[in-house]
Fold:
Amino acid sequence: MFFAQFLARHDDLAPRAFASYETARGWREDPGRVDRLMNEISRSRESRKRVYIGKTFRDCTRFVCRSSFTRFMICERKAFTQEMQGLLEEPDTFIEDGRMLKRGNSSTVSLVHLSDRSLVIKRYNIKGLFHGLRRAFRKSRAWISWTNAFRMEFLDIPALKPVALIENRLGPLRSNAYLVTEYVEGPDALECLRDTKTPNGELEALASILQKLAESQISHGDLKATNFLMSQSGPVIIDLDAMREHRSRQQFARAFKQDLERFMENWRDNPMLTNRFSRLLSELNHRYGASLK
Structure:
């Protein structure tokens, strides 16, 4: 369907266009017909999104996929150079040889430089035997982040750009997993805005991301300021493994209320930013009942 090709934020155009179509066809006005149209648009868009994300897990024009008893790997085909294949074969070596950005219990993050690009490798660590057993039968956090990154791409929400995914496996059991993404050059939102006296569109851009997430009923799960990187082209949202798309409006409202409140905690020590964001997010605050101060 035509309107299913557009993002949900443009759905208000469909009833107006359909009213003109009904007039041209000489149909009598029927509100139920519009409701059926909107439901069909939503179903068709969901189907397109499932197909779009599904293609990111199989060998196709855009991706190279390799799967065996002990390993699953998928990579953007245009990035699958010989040098990149070396990285995918020995990601731990590249992590240790790169510039360490984070060395934690749950994850290790390193910046690596190839001849044609800079990449970030994030290894999702298994912290011990019991943690490994809990994670073995579940989708890895790398898998979830990969899925959510392409969900963001489909929805035109600025987020990290995934390049490759690796899972170490033993048959159906998952172990360590790796997410390789494009390097986003720029400070995080906290560093960028902490000493800014006259923001130049950054606050509006961040608020726009929250608005787009709300339109798609997506909660992030950890909206601390360091999970936004301020690139030259605008803010990019990262750390997507806790992100969730909700079917239930009530569940989404509860989760997004927490997102909004966590986001505002970032600026508690900066009254100017608190007041500016409170104004920019006033509609979302009213809708979801978040306490923004």
In short: The chain is about 45% helix and 20% strand. The radius of gyration is 22 Å. The mean pLDDT is 88.
